[in-house]
């Protein structure tokens, strides 16, 4: 072309960005500027998506200000999106707050930025501000807001968002997000209703439901749904098979899990990824096949990460296998030297095997490195408010009443056979101290708070930051039997649905 204008250059920059040739896109911007052509808002909206590091993003941001385009709706939205992609929420919010926002596109970008970076509280606050400013939520707004509710496991608030979703009827993306929210909040009945509401289900709809059932402990139903999905003609994807393997792992279905893993490429054309390997390693480990689990790790095509080794270490704890536990722990600490959970689990395994010198060595390393156990924290939503309980934190104004009620419940539970299991306490306490430490675990406090202050008969839903311990698991089971109250506890790994003295995991976790 003898002459190139802004449209010519922008078309090329957008084309390179669309095919992920980001270096060429940035290079063409530089050539464009050298050619004396002034970029417009479309140029910057395109090239922002090609930024591969924060330093590039900041330079382009300076160019946007230089050319006076920082107030353009699409440029501001792209800036917020790309800053959030790189985890720089401070600058994303700064761009948003620099001038009054009169466009829904920019509101959606900032709400999505916080929701995608696990800052659900702020995403929900921004959603409320947006509504107060007179903006009507669209599909993009509601998808991000549902994601925020999902991350925080806020069922009641998610149900309020559901009302807005109904206005958009058969929007597939929104309905899939709604179903995921209900699954992640442990409300499978609502998730099923949302699933059945979708007329034209896609692979995401089916995969979300299969994974949701598996995570909530309903492995057999997850596998039945997988068979129904195949009969409907929908081809499984990467996540679908992950849900199937997760279901097999948490139900002890070793042969079935290995069959799906070894045949997933042949049957569905899906190459096993690190997550699939992790599920199979967990499957073998839970079943006590620790040697096979170690072999599977060494056979992985990609380098195993700390999550993979933690799956093996967790199985070693269940089966009290010191040798494999030490091996797995060393691999974890090589990748994550300050992982407190690994040190504590190893210390307790040594203590249970009466290897006191090794216990002292692990505790000395922790002391020298300044590593401390992350305190257990549990959250419960009661009357549209979030209440947090942290072991050792006495700031909750109702704590004394909760502890008094908990003591009475413990006394009643002991009469029906409850015995505190001190295997789940760090072994530097003795006798009654160990029992006291168990007594005030955060999930016990949250459960009792829910029983005291929520509507009678309503399911108690708890979210916690650490894996539920065996003692609290027994406590919750017995409590549902004597109180006739359902309890759902979501920990970082899975969900436990307690009803009438039984847990959905069937004690296989």
UniProtKB/TrEMBL annotation:
Family stated for the protein in its record: Belongs to the PPR family. PCMP-H subfamily.
GO annotation terms (biological process): RNA modification
Annotated SUPFAM superfamilies: TPR-like (SSF48452)
PROSITE patterns noted in UniProt: PPR
Pfam families: DYW_deaminase, E_motif, PPR, PPR_2
InterPro entries attached to this UniProt entry: DYW_dom, E_motif, PPR_At4g14850-like_plant, PPR_rpt, TPR-like_helical_dom_sf
Database matches in NCBIfam families: PPR
GO molecular function ontology, one term from the record: zinc ion binding
Repeat positions for PPR: 5-39, 103-137, 202-236, 339-373
Species for this entry: Heracleum sosnowskyi
Residues annotated as domain DYW: 417-509
Name of the featured protein: Pentatricopeptide repeat-containing protein, mitochondrial
């Amino acid at each position: 072309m003898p002459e190139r204008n802004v449209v010519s250059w922008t078309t090329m920059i957008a084309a390179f960005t669309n095919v992920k040739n980001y270096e060429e896109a940035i290079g063409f911007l530089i050539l464009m500027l050298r050619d004396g052509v002034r970029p417009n808002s479309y140029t910057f909206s395109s090239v922002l998506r090609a930024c591969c590091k924060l330093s590039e993003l900041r330079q382009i941001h300076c160019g946007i200000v230089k050319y006076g385009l920082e107030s353009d709706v699409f440029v501001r939205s792209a800036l917020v999106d790309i800053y959030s992609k790189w985890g720089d929420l401070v600058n994303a919010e700064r761009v948003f707050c620099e001038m009054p926002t009169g466009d829904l596109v920019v509101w959606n970008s900032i709400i999505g930025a916080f929701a995608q970076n696990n800052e659900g509280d702020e995403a929900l606050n921004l959603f409320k501000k947006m509504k107060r400013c007179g903006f009507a939520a669209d599909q993009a707004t509601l998808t991000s807001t549902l994601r925020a509710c999902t991350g925080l496991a806020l069922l009641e608030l998610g149900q309020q968002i559901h009302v807005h979703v109904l206005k958009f009827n058969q929007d597939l993306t929104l309905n899939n997000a709604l179903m995921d929210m209900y699954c992640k909040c442990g409300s499978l009945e609502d998730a099923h209703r949302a699933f059945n509401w979708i007329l034209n289900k896609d692979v995401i709809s089916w995969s979300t439901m299969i994974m949701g059932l598996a995570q909530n402990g309903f492995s057999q139903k997850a596998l039945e749904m997988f068979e129904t999905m195949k009969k409907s003609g929908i081809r499984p994807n990467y996540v679908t098979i992950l849900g199937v393997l997760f279901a097999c792992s948490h139900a002890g279905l070793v042969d079935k899990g290995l069959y799906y893993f070894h045949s997933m490429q042949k049957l569905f054309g899906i190459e096993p990824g690190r997550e699939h390997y992790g599920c199979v390693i967990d499957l073998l480990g839970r079943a006590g096949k620790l040697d096979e689990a170690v072999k599977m790790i060494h056979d992985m095509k990609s380098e195993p990460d700390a999550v993979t080794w933690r799956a093996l270490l967790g199985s070693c704890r269940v089966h009290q296998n010191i040798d494999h536990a030490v091996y797995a722990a060393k691999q974890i600490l090589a990748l994550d030297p300050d992982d407190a959970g690994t040190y504590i689990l190893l210390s307790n395994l040594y203590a249970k095997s009466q290897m006191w010198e090794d216990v002292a060595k692990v505790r000395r390393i922790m002391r020298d490195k300044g590593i401390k156990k992350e305190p257990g924290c549990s959250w419960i939503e009661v009357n549209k408010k979030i209440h947090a309980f942290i072991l050792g934190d006495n700031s909750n104004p109702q704590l004394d009443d909760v502890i008094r009620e908990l003591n009475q419940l413990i006394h009643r539970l002991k009469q029906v056979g409850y015995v505190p299991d001190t295997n789940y306490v760090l072994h530097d306490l003795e006798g009654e101290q160990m029992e006291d430490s168990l007594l005030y675990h955060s999930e016990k406090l949250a459960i009792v708070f829910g029983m005291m202050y929520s509507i009678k008969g309503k399911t108690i839903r708890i979210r916690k930051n650490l894996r539920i311990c065996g003692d609290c698991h027994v406590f919750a089971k017995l409590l549902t039997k004597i109180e006739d109250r359902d309890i759902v506890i979501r920990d970082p790994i899975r969900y436990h649905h307690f009803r009438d003295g039984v847990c959905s995991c069937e004690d296989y976790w």
